[in-house]
Amino acid sequence: MHGTLRQLEVDFDVLSGNPLGDPARRPLLVYLPPGADGERLPAVYFLHGFSGSGRGWLNVSMFQPALPERIDAQIVSGAFPPFLAVFPDGTTRLGGTQWTDAPAVGRYQTYVAESVVQEVERRFPAIPAREARAVVGKSSGGYGALRMGRDRADVFAHVGSHAGDACFEYCYLPDLPKAISALVGADSPADWLEAAVRRARETRLRGEDMAVLNVIAMAAHYSPDPTAPLGLALPFELPSGRLRPEVWAQWLREDPVRFVPTSLDAYRSLATVFLDCGTRDEFHLRWGARMVAESLRAGGMEPVHQEFEDGHMGINYRYDASLAVIAPRLARG
């Protein structure tokens, strides 16, 4: 790489005492392009997906560069104007975060929008202005970026969502019967989770575990219940498997397909909204992205909405598309 990748360990007080007992000390990766010491630059904050991690951005697939290397090559070639790339960590005991302030999980939106931003602008030559900040992510990270656009437009003026969770009937309902089958034999979701973590440490998670883990984690974000195990309400009854309409309604209120049309003033204040999804996305997120884009257009906005021929996994190359739109629009000092 021509630029520099700094790997820090930072104690973030906002995560101290979180309900899951996850560590407040987190890795923080920051990419600085060549010549970054000489000028202040805008910054792009990257939110990883569910089951990902801050250090996971360094993983290399066969013949493919890691994302910091991809960004470095594009900046050096002149395809992108230079910017800082920031990679916070959102790993949790449940497998990840939706990057929101969730009572059963922790204050991960505040962690990024305030603590990480402040840490980056204290240590690195980042321009301290919303017009010079972007937040982008994929899957759960894409959902988190859309939520940042709604809740923290005071911090970020540019948002990019790659295959972000949206239209919950399509992306989450198919996992519910799988979760029911696994949980009906457990004393509680907490017992199932403990057994799954133990199994992963001893050998590995089974393929079918991911659907169950995903449902538990989403319930922690969308339907918290401090009186229930793990502090969450499942959207179905056990052992019957019957859907709980009042809990499912809580989930739907957190769906971008529902909250974007009611939050258009926040999105209108943004300089950029980028949305994309593969036409073969295994979680059917293509349709949620279409619905969100349609709502933004109906609200008088001009989101950049793209579709491409691929699925949900292994699509870090799509950051080339979002950054080609966002990077030239970032304010510069």
Give a verbal description of the structure:
By secondary structure, this protein is α/β, with parallel strands linked by helices. It has helices spanning about 65-75, 110-125, 140-150, 170, 175-185, 190-200, 210-220, 245-255, 255-260, 265-270, 285-300, 320-325; strands at about 5-10, 25-30, 45, 85, 100, 105, 135-140, 160, 270-280, 305-310. Strands 1-2-4-3-7-8-9-10 form an 8-stranded mixed β-sheet, sandwiched between helices. The chain contains 12 helices and 10 strands. The protein folds into 2 domains: about 5-165 and about 255-330, Alpha/Beta hydrolase fold, catalytic domain (Rossmann fold, 3-Layer(aba) Sandwich), CATH 3.40.50.1820; about 170-255, no CATH class. Helix 5 packs across helix 7. The two termini are about 25 Å apart. Helix 3 (about 140-150) links the parallel strand 7 (about 135-140) and strand 8. Helices cover about 35% and strands about 15% of the residues.
| Helix percentage | 25-40%
Name of the CATH class of the largest domain: Alpha Beta
Strand content: 15-25%
CATH topology of the largest domain: Rossmann fold
- Principal-axes geometry comes out as globular
**Record field, number of beta strands:** 10
Helix and strand pattern: EEEHEEEHEHEHHHHHHHEHEH
| Total of domains | 2
Enumerate how many helices there are, as a single number. 12
